Amino acid sequence: MLVIGNQTVRDVLDDREPDILDAVRRAYVTHAAHDTSLPHSVFLRFPDVPQNRIIGLPAYLGGTSPVAGMKWISSFPGNIAAGLERASAAIVLNSLSTGHPQALIEASVISARRTAASAALAVGALTDAAAHTGVSLVGSGVINGEVLRFLRVVAPGLRSVRLFDLDRARAAAFARTHAADLEVTYAESLDEALAAHPLVSFATTAAVPHTGLAACRPGTLVLHLSLRDVTPESLLDAVNVVDDPDHVCRADTSPHLAEQLVGHRDFITTSIGEVLAAAGRYEPDRERVTVFSPFGLGVLDLALAELVHNTAVRDGLGVRMNDFLPVPARETAARPAG
To answer: What is the pLDDT of residue 116?
Structure first.
């Protein structure tokens, strides 16, 4: 068993945004080709603290370098007030020949960057990325920090950021950390943020939908990463792109509530994997708002975990635990008695 900690994961993934984007793109296209296995995520909730949850995402990613495993990710919003990260995660990779666990990888960075990479890929696939000069970020946490990192790769003309957060001090700290070389302004209201740019990213801890999209400009792309900000009625008026309809229409997400409202999923236009597989043949709607709602597929986590694992093995990184698994019976029998 190879154990790979947070700092090693960061060292491997830092300054490799093109490699990460490529890995996430291949995972999406492989899923669109039905060469994956994705059981529904398992939600562990706590009756006395309903805002806390731990989610298990098992997955198999096929293609030229198949990989299987599971991400176990927690979300405890109260951590923020205590100066701790809201989310923490670990990924176990399993051997496809024996099923044995072969790597345990700290996955908070993987989880955040695969989410941000999926958002950036959506910008490139669903809009003219080169035309974007600004973005509105709703929520100033880790995810939108990573979103901004990857947006600057696919939209190098990005120069300005409009921030909206209920905690202005938190927004100011975000600006210093993630956007020191950009023009940053602060929205006084959510509608002001929605109207500021034709590119909007929601990454909040909202538990129930709280906003419509009427303030958005025509043709705006909304990256609905937190999945529970936009009212279901607003989704029904938008062009909807998801990662997987069966996964995103669960757990009281906005698309799930929209499905319950109308009794079908016809409001979902396509999936991001299908758009990426079509290689540029997608025509964006210039009048209606487009909403990208990714549930967060486990195959994306596996794609980046495999990138980290392969690099760690090649470069001798991480901690090898040779006594993690049971000793095979034949080796036990071969040992001398006494």
So the answer is: 98
